[in-house]
Fold this sequence. Notes:
Layout: H1 2-37, E1 57-61, E2 71-75, E3 79-83, E4 89-93, E5 96-104, E6 107-110, E7 113-115, E8 119-124, E9 130-132, E10 135-137, E11 140-146, E12 150-158, H2 159-170, H3 177-201, E13 207-208, H4 224-232, E14 236-239, E15 249-250, H5 260-264, E16 287-293, H6 294-303, E17 311-320, E18 326-334, E19 340-344, H7 345-352, E20 362-366, E21 370-376, E22 384-385, H8 386-394, H9 399-406, E23 411-414
Parallel strand pairs: 1-13, 15-22
Antiparallel strand pairs: 1-12, 2-5, 2-9, 3-4, 3-8, 5-6, 6-7, 8-11, 9-10, 11-12, 14-23, 16-21, 17-18, 18-19, 20-21
Helix pairs in contact: 2-3, 2-4, 3-4, 3-8, 3-9
Amino acid sequence: MNYIFYRNVKNLFKRLSQxxxxxxCIGILVSFYSCITAPKPxxxxxxxxxxxxxxxxLKVVLTATLNQESFPLSVNxxxxxxxxxxxxxxxxxxxxxxxxxxxxxxGLMFGNTLIPHNDFDVWPxxxxxxxxxGRSYHGGLWVHALPENKLAFCNIIDMETYLQSVVGSELTxxxxxxxxxxxAIAARTYGLFEIKSAKISGRWFDLRDDTGSQxxxxxxxxxxKTIEAVEQSRGVILIYNDGLFKAFYHSTCGGYTESVKDIxxxxxxxxxxxxxxxxxxISKFYEWNTALSKGDVTxxxxxxxxxxxxxxSRIEITATLPSGRANVLKLHLxxxxxxxxxxxxxxxxxxxxxxxxxxxxxxxxxxxxxxxFYGRGYGHGAGMCQMGAVGMAESAISAIDILQYYYxxxxxxxxx
Length: 416
C-alpha cells in the first residue's frame, strides 16, 4: 500500500515537473517571438535625434501655387506679416478674402500694398486659419519669390498638426485606428527624413502637399480619429541602425511589395526589401484592367517624349522585377525612322498616367486597334502597403505588428 502511494506521488511530481518545464519553454518562445514581431516603442533619444526635443516645423509647398505669377490668399482672423523667419511684424491687418500676392521689381505686392522683401511670412492670430486654393490650413504661410517673377506658398506647420491632416489625406479616416496609427508613424518618419534631406541638399522646402511627398489636404482632412492616431503615436518614428530611413508607402501592392532598390534605385536596406502581402485583397485596386487605343497610347508617349516619331504597334515586356512587376518595355514602332524603343515601365506609366495605369504590375493584350492592360495594385509598390495595413488592422493586428511586417528589422523610438 505504501509502495503504491509512493509511486503515485512520484508520478504526480514527475508530471508536474514536465508541465512546469513545458510552460517555461512556451513562455520563452512567446517572449522571443514577441521581441521579433512586436517590439514596443522605446522612450529614448538616440544620438541621431538628441537635438529634437519637440515637434519640428515643416515647410510644405502648396503645389497649386508653385511657379504662379499671382495667387490669392485668405485669412479668417487678424494676422501679422513678418520678414521670413523673423519675429517683428512689418504689417498687421484684419481678416482678408482673396487678396492677390504678386511679385514686383521692388518686392512682393500684397494686394495694393508693397512688401519690400522677396519673402515674407503670414501668421494668423488666435488660432486663425489661412486659406489657399479652397483649402484651409493651420500654422503660418511663407510667401516665397521664385525666379522669373514667379512665386510659391509654403505652409509652415508643426509636425504633429501636419500629421493630423496627412493621415486623413492618405487614408479614409473611418478605417481601423491601428491602421491610422501605423500611417501616422510611417508619415512622421518620412517627414523627418525629408527635413534632413532638405537641409543636406539645400532644397528650399521640406515636402510637397501631393503624392510627390505625402498627400496633405489641410484642415478638411482632420477628424477625431486622425487626431487620436497622431496623439497615440506622438513622437514615435522608425529607425534602422540608429538612423532615419525614407519610410516609403503606397496604396495597394497587389500581393507583393518591391525593393526600394528596384523601384527608386536607392540603396537597399532590410526594412525596404520586398515581401509577400496577403492583406490587400480588400482594395478596389487589387486587380484592375483598362483599354486604350493605340492612337491614344502613341500620343501620350509622344507628349512625354518617350518615342521620337511613328506609332506604337506592339508593346513587349522584356524584363520584370522579382514580384512580377514590369521593369523594361520594348515599344515596337511603325511609320518612323526608329523601329523599336526600350523604356522603363515607370517612365511608361508616368507617360500614360496613374488614371490608366495604377501600377507597373501589369501585362498587355493586343486588341488590334487598342491595348488592354491587366494589372494589380496601385502605386509604386515600395514600403508599406496601405490597404494591406488596413486589412491587417481589420484582422485585429496592432500598428506595431503592421509596421514590423512592412518594415522588418526597423526599430521604433519615441524622440519627443
